[in-house]
Task: structure prediction
Amino acid sequence: MRICRVFFIALTILISLLSISLLPAATLYGDAESSVSFNIPDSREDDRYESLINPGNIMGLGDVMYSLDSTFKVEDNREGGSFTFWVSLEDVSGTAGTGNSLFALDIMRLIYNWDISDSLRLNLGRQGFLTGYGYGWNPMDLVNPVKDPSDPDRELKGVDSLSLLFDRGGAFQMGLFAAVSGEGLTRVEYNDLQGGVNMTFLMPFAELKFSGITGEEYGISGGFLADLFGAGIYGEAALRETSRAAVPVAAPGFLLEEGKDPVFSGLVGVEYVFPSELSVVAEYFYNGEGYDRKERKNYKEALTYFNDSNGAAEAEWYALFRPGYFGKHYMLLNLFYPVYNLWSEAYLTCIVSPDSGTLAIQPEWTILPTGSLEISLAWSGIYSYDDDLYGEAWFSPLQNTAVLKGVYHF
Result:
C-alpha cells in the first residue's frame, strides 16, 4: 500500500478518536479529493514546460500529474459556545509515477466561540473574515488572503485573531477584531498586529457592508447588494494606503520597489437565475494593485536577465506572478446549469483581461451519482490574443490542461 494512503487513513482514525474522546458531542465531516491532470504542452521538446517563471521546470510540471487532498472538519456546538477545527492535508508529490509522497498539512480553522449574550459573541483563534459580495474577487476583503478567481469556492485559510461580534436582531451586525498580519509567523512584532471593524446593515431589499483596518497600514472598503427585478446587483470598493504587490523596476537595477501611494480597487457584478434554472454571474474587476503594460514588460526583462545570468531569480520575483491579479482590468462570466435527468451539473467560466491580452476558459461537467460522491471532467485553457501586452498567458508555462477529479464528502 502506498505510504500516502496509509497516512490518510491514519490521520482520519486519529482525528476521529480525538473527536470522540475529547468532544463527545462533536461532529466530524469533510471531504477527500483525488484528481489527475493531463497537461498538453505546445511542443515535444524536453524544455516544453519551461518559461520565464518556470526556468529549468522548477515547478516540476509533467505530462500527467496527480493530487490527493483531504479536509477534516470537527465542530462542537453547545449551549453558550462552540469549537471549530479544520485541517487540510494536501499531497503535493507532483508528477504521477515518481513513487514519492510529499504532504502539506495546514490548520485552516481553530476557533473557540463564547456566547456572552444573545447578541454578543467572542471568537478566539484562526477564523475567517471573508466579507463582500463578489464571486471571483473581493476587493473589500481587507484581511483574508486573496481568492483564486478560477476556483472562487475554495475555502481560504483563516486569520489568527481575537474578535467580538455584535448582532442587533438581524438588522445590524458589527465585528471588532485584532489580527496578526502575515502567515506562518513564529514571532509576532507589534507591526504585525492590525485592528479592524466589519459592519453590515440589513434592509428589506438591500444590504450594505463597510470594513476598515489599521496598523502598519490602513485600509477602508464598502460594498452593497440589491435585489432589482429578481437580479442580484452588487458592488465593492476598497482604498489601501499602499499596494501589497511590489513593482518591478526597469534595467539596469532590476529592483523591486515597494508601493508608496494609496491604491484603489473596485468590482461591480450581477447575478441572475433564469426560469430554466440557468444561473449567470457577470463581473468587472478593477485591480489597482495590478501591473500596467510597462511594469509587465519590466517584469519580463528582469526575469530574462536573472534566468540568463544566474539560472533563476529570487523566489520573491516569481511570487509576483498572480493569475487573476497580474493585470489591472478583468471581466468574468460564469454559467451554471443543472441537468437533473443525467444527475449532472454543467459549468463554464470565462475570464478576460483586456489590458493584458489574456483569455481563460474553464468548462466542467460534474456527475453526482450519489449525494456524497462527485466525479468531474474539466478543461483549463489560458490564451494570449496579444503577446505584446505580456499577460498571464504569455508568461504561463502551460496553456491547456484536462482534469479528471473525484470528490467524496463524508
